[in-house]
Amino acid sequence: MFSQIFKKVPAGGIVIPMLFAGLINSFFPQFFNLGPTSSSIAKIDGLNAIISITLVAVGSQLTFSRLKKALHRGFTLFIFKWIGSIVLGFLYIKIFGNKGIFGMTSLCFIAAISNQNNSIFVGLINDYGDEYDMASAAITSIISVPIFTFLTLSILNVANITPSSILDLALPILVGIFLGNIDKGFCKFLGESQKYILPFLGFSIGAGIDLSTLIKGGLGGIALSLMAILAAFLFTLPADIFINKRPGWAGLSISTAAGNSIIVPALVSDLDPSWQSTMAISEAQLGTVVILTSILVPVVVGLWNKKHGVEKIYR
């Protein structure tokens, strides 16, 4: 029964456990604090451990035989996501200034549109993609860490940048690439393992979500969520269709926001105290973006694929 539900919901293997854990954490916040075993999955260290395992599996699919096509797809999405973030961020600052509009600062806007939840992307690949899409996730994973947002903020003179987290992200991917290329068995095993990893990843993400954030984030958070999805229609969707020659769902799939985008206001405030007065509202708004895009993007992708006749791949 549950497997059928997972199949009907886009990225259901990660979204359904995420929402389930989010509901538990919202109404029973002490549920995941019973002891070290139960609390580990809800802590950032536990989530990062599962993400690292996922990145090893993703990296293992980037074999030499798939390299050219996977790099082409992944870098196309990466570059156009970045271009879109810079162009839209520049226009937002030019029109509204750093204070923004309706409480949505330029910092918050850029953090929302320049980030992506690679776990949702991998979940949607598991539903609709092929082995080249899965391998391309090793490239798009770069967008899911704050360093990419910091680089965009730096280019637009909003914040300084510290690049040390790039190596931290790259290490599990490189391990996966090594394992996938030295043995075809590793490549096959790790590729098939992702559908079993994703529900645990989704549950761990959800265990750190408080749905009351939707209320705190208010209309600003909802507006930012819609802007993040709209940005994909303007940049990564056309790039996926016209450059990658693909149906376009992958270009929409990277319009989510990862949970670590919420920490961007605090990190920037440490570098520039002038942002401290807006830190709390920015964190609430970005929390709303994380929740809503994680829910809405799989739905949008499902509707897009239904309209264009893209069928699910039941692995």
Describe this protein's structure.
- By secondary structure, the chain is mainly alpha-helical.
- Helix content is 72%, strand content 0%.
- The protein has 16 helices and no strands.
- The chain has helices spanning 2-8, 12-27, 36-40, 44-60, 67-96, 106-113, 118-128, 131-140, 146-155, 165-182, 184-206, 213-234, 236-242, 249-253, 264-271, 279-307.
- Helix 6 packs across helix 12, helix 7 packs across helix 11 and helix 12 (213-234) crosses helix 16 (279-307).
- The radius of gyration is 19 Å and the shape is globular.
- The model has no long low-confidence stretch (mean pLDDT 82).
Total E-strand runs: 0
> What series of H and E elements makes up the topology?
HHHHHHHHHHHHHHHH
Average of per-residue pLDDT values: 82
Structural class: mainly alpha
What oligomeric assembly is this protein in? single chain
Apparent shape: globular
Please bin the fraction of helical residues: over 70%
> What is the overall number of helices?
16
Low-pLDDT residue intervals, each spanning 5 or more residues: none
Any idea what the radius of gyration is?
19 Å
Give the N-terminus to C-terminus distance in angstroms: 17 Å
Outline the biggest β-sheet: none
Share of residues in strands = under 5%
